Every structure is written in structure tokens, then in C-alpha cells.
Amino acid sequence: MPNEAGDALRVDAFDFDLPERLIALRPVRPRSAARLLVAEGGGLQDRHFRDLPAILRAGDLLVFNDTRVLPVRLSGTRRRGAGETATVARIEVTLTERQGPDLWDALARPARRLRTGDLIAFADLAAEVVGRGEGGAVLLRFDRAGAVLDRAIERVGAMPLPPYIAGRRPADARDREDYQTRLARRDGAVAAPTAALHFDEALLAALDGAGIERCTVTLHVGPGTFLPVTAEYVHEHRMHAEWGEIDAATAGVIARARAEGRRVIPVGTTALRLIETAAAGG
Questions:
Q1: Rounded to the nearest 5 degrees, what angle is found at the Cα of 60, between the Cα atoms of 59 and 66?
Q2: Per-residue model confidence (pLDDT) at position 225
Q3: What CA–CA distance (Å, rounded) separates 137 from 226?
Q4: What does the alpha-carbon distance between residue 278 and residue 246 come to, in Å, rounded to a whole number?
Q5: Does 127 score more than 80 pLDDT?
Q6: The pairing of beta strand 103-109 with beta strand 137-142
Q7: How far is 7 from 233, CA to CA, in rounded Å?
Q8: Average pLDDT over the chain, rounded to whole?
Q9: How confident is the model at residue 241 (pLDDT cuts 50, 70, 90)?
């Protein structure tokens, strides 16, 4: 919304140049070797995630997002007609939200090549376009349902990489491990909670040894993370809804840490926005 001076904040105020050579196409291994910028007391330090046990304090509470990313990017073909007059188009879809045992909302590309009633074949999995929306949104009805459909998607799907990576290389088998956090437990995300990707078993054990507590919440990262901001002003941008949950036990852990004056540190923006929404009564 407009600021106190009555001026609306323009989206292009956040534009900056990021050279392609600085965009990593693969995460570093081991995970905890990733670089970490520490901002404290007005100063900046270049560190690594493996240094966190020495940077954090005993008693700090780290809050992780335990969502598990589904391999929901499907590549297929749309065929119209038969014989020599048949037309074929390559179609990519990213499933975004389940609407029924055999129904999924999805983002399709190129959506202009699809119309209601079209059939798309994804290897041995097929879907019919039963609805269309704005911005490439489609509703797909698959040729199987429930757990059978889940297994088929797991088999033929690929991990939904961020657009700045997907535009430069195809997804592969290694991405299924690289873009899943070590604390992933609950199926439902269409993108990874990236801050937690830098924590491996050795770092988690070191944090435990340093007396740093942790708990988990669940926020299934939604399709909005892939969509560009097209509004001219920040207050005009329409945010997409996401499903999240903080159970009573975890809420108690967070409340106790706050009551004892200990720091509560969300690991990344997904955990942060879920905690803030819950605290605001959203």
C-alpha cells in the first residue's frame, strides 16, 4: 500500500543486475559448505553454513519447514487429429494444487497451444484439459486417481527447478536429492524451501551438540514462487495462497522459547511467513 508520504512503491525499485556467471546451476557439496553472509552490529562477514554452531547461541531455537517437494514438472505432447493431418505440440506443465483424486491445477507452457478437451500424454500417463484460467493456468483430469496417480507422478515427473535454473539446464535424477531438504517429511510443496537445503546431517548434529534447539512447521510452497510480478506497484501484486500448519506441540515449543527470552530463528522465508501469519491470527 502507499507509504506515509502517499507515494506507492514501484516494483522496479527492486530491480538489480545479477550476472549469469554468479547463478549456481548446482548446489555445492557438501551442503554445509555453502556461503553464508552474517550481518551483525552494522558489519558484514563472509562465512559458511558449517560455521553456524559457532555463530548461534546455545538455547537458540531454529524453526525449519518440513515440507517435501513433489516431482510435479511433467513434459508431454498434445496431439490433435489423426493420421497425416494430426498436429503435435510439446507441452510442459507444473502441477500446483490437487483438486480431487484425479484432478490437478497446473501451470502449462505454452498454454496458448491448449484448449479444453485436449489430451496430453506424459510417457504412460495421460490427462485431459478440463478447464483453463489466466496466466497459463489449466485444470487437468488424469487417467488414474488417488495413490495410483501419486505413484505415476513420482515415476514420470521431474523436480520443479527455479526458472533461472530451468531455463539453462534440464532437470535430472540428481535434482531429486539436491532440491529436497534433510528434514523433508510431508508431501505437498511444488518448490523447495531453499534456506534449509544447506543443512546436512553433520551440521544438524553439530548444532545439537552446541545446544541449539530445533522444531518443524509445515508450509507447502505454492506456485506463486514461480510466477513473475507483473504489477507496476507493490500494493497491486496479487499473492497466491499456500497451505501451512503449526501443530500445538510446536506452538508450545516456540512460545516457551520466547517466554524464556531465547531467540526464535526461522530457517528461511517460508517458515518465517507461516509463523508471522499464525501470530497475526491469519
A1: 125
A2: 73
A3: 12
A4: 8
A5: yes
A6: antiparallel
A7: 10
A8: 91
A9: confident
Question: What is the tens place of the pLDDT at every residue in 6-63?
Answer: 468 999 999 999 898 888 899 999 999 999 999 988 999 999 999 999 999 999 999 9
DSSP state of 80: E
Task: Name the grid cell of 281.
Answer: 491470527
Tell me, what DSSP letter sits at residue 133? -
pLDDT value, residue 231: 87
Look at the block and give the residue holding cell 495462497. 241
Pairing relationship of beta strands 243-245 and 213-220 according to DSSP bridges: antiparallel
Cell of 145: 486417481
Do the beta carbons of residue 94 and residue 137 sit within 8 Å? no
Q: Compute the distance between CA of residue 161 and CA of residue 88 in angstroms, rounded to an integer.
A: 25
Contacts of 203 (CB under 8 A, 6+ apart): 31, 32, 49, 50, 52, 53
Please say whether the beta carbons of 282 and 274 come within 8 A: no
Which grid coordinates belong to 208?
A: 545439537
Of all residues in the chain, what percent are helix, strand and coil, respectively (each to 5)?
A: 30, 30, 40
Q: CA–CA separation, 1 vs 267, rounded Å? A: 27
Residue 23 C-alpha cell reads as: 547463478
Q: What is the pTM of this model?
A: 0.87
